[in-house]
Amino acid sequence: MAISNMTRSAIGAAVGIAALGAAFILSSGKSAASGTQAEPPASAVKVMATEGDSTLKDHTIAYVLTDRYWAVYENKDSKVDCPDGMNDGPREQFKKLFPNDGKKRTVMETQLAREGYQWHPTTSAESFPFHEAHGKVSYGLDLDGKTGPNDFDGPDGEKGIDNQLYRVIGCIANYRSAGTIYHFENEFMRRYDNDRVVIELTGVDDLKNDPDVTVTTYRGLDGLLTDATGTNTIPGGTQRLDMRWGKDYIQKLKGRIVDGVLLTEPVDRIEIPWGVTFNTSGYQVFRGMRLKLKLTAQAAEGLMAGYVDVDAFTYHLNTSWSTHHQSYGQLSSPSEYRAMRRLADGYPDPKTGLNTAISGAVTVKFAQVFARHPPEAGTLVTKN
């Protein structure tokens, strides 16, 4: 019986589809006849053998910062932390200072005067109270090796925790888990590359125990590697290290690893990239900073603690968050400054004897990355 051209075409297409399906099944490692697992090619065996290898290469491993929060311990009942309630912000304070009582006031006497106090704060008394955090538990580290009456207990029962910054910001809504700064600092840190913080551990023999390692801080130049959702950071990315414009952020710390926990010695002064709103370039200054991080081959998590420079903290706040944005979380910069000065407990000024820094801590999370150092000057770079 004669077969038409149209029929021949249909048969050819069917045969082609069947062959393609068989090829797909075979390439997936299944036998077309029995459906059993077929032997993978030699090249696939070689790839599979390298999967899961340790990320510790040449005694070196690096991590990139993915999450940071000023360490504010929150009880389920906020009245434990803040029995007097939360602090007022700029709008609430403005209404108390300049009530609608019919008195005529100029813009110079009101709005501009208040804005001036943002940039030129004083320690003079205010007409409204400042509510400090009164809880007995706080995140942080023992920075001075002592246990004093103003120290906290850690969440796991540690004694002598130094975190006077918590007393200042613990009852300011902006810094708590529902606050604007709490949320958006991390949002902006992930979004903008000039905020990229990388730590590289060298001289590492074992991620579980090693008595002598070196930790170097850098600013990275690349975005974070995320999963398909775009919100969850995953390990395995690459970070080029900024050795030119980021030289101020390069600092070496000596440390050790004990039972999988990295502990570093304090460094006298360090600048940490801390840009925020609209890709604003900024940094925080820490004195006596140290790290306590639980390490794995994929991540690091723990605390960055030290004495926060009061003037640098206030300058960063005002250049990164306008009075308008501070109002979202009832954060009054002049009131906060007064409290920080009052509770400052470290690094006294040699002339005045007044402390210039306040003990504090930041909870941090890192993801493992491969740090890429730029070639040294004069090195010939070739492309494959």
Structure description:
The structure is a single chain. The chain is α+β, with helices and mostly antiparallel strands. It has helices at residues 5-27, 42-50, 78-81, 90-97, 111-119, 164-169, 180-191, 310-320, 323-326, 333-343; strands spanning 61-70, 197-202, 210-219, 237-240, 251-258, 261-264, 267-273, 283-295, 299-309, 346-348, 355-372. Helix 8 (310-320) runs antiparallel to helix 10 (333-343). It is globular, with a radius of gyration of 28 Å.
Looking at this protein, list some descriptive labels.
384 residues, alpha+beta, eight-stranded antiparallel barrel, 11 strands, disordered N terminus
- Series of secondary-structure elements, N-terminal to C-terminal: HHEHHHHHEEEEEEEEHHHEE
- Order of adjacent strands in the largest pleated sheet: 1-2-3-5-6-8-9-11
The count of β-strands is 11
Helix content: 25-40%
Label the structural class: alpha+beta
> Can you tell me the overall shape?
globular
Helix and strand arrangement:
Blueprint: H1 5-27, H2 42-50, E1 61-70, H3 78-81, H4 90-97, H5 111-119, H6 164-169, H7 180-191, E2 197-202, E3 210-219, E4 237-240, E5 251-258, E6 261-264, E7 267-273, E8 283-295, E9 299-309, H8 310-320, H9 323-326, H10 333-343, E10 346-348, E11 355-372
Parallel strand pairs: 4-11
Antiparallel strand pairs: 1-2, 1-11, 2-3, 3-5, 5-6, 6-8, 7-8, 8-9, 9-11, 10-11
How do you describe this structure in short?
The chain has helices at residues 5-27, 42-50, 78-81, 90-97, 111-119, 164-169, 180-191, 310-320, 323-326, 333-343; strands at residues 61-70, 197-202, 210-219, 237-240, 251-258, 261-264, 267-273, 283-295, 299-309, 346-348, 355-372.
